Amino acid sequence: MTVFVGNDPVFASATAETALSRIDWAVVEGELDRNGAAIVESLLDEADCRAVAALYDTAGHFRSKVVMSRHGFGRGEYQYFAYPLPPRIERLRTAIYPHLAGVANRWNQDLGMPVRFPPSHADYLGRCHAAGQTRPTPLLLRYGSGDYNCLHQDVYGEHVFPLQVAILLSQPGTDFTGGEFVLTEQRPRMQSRAEVVPLRQGDAVIFAVHHRPMRGSKGIYRVNLRHGVSRLRSGRRHTLGLIFHDAA
Question: How far is it, in rounded angstroms, from Cα 202 to Cα 2?
Answer without folding.
Answer: 13
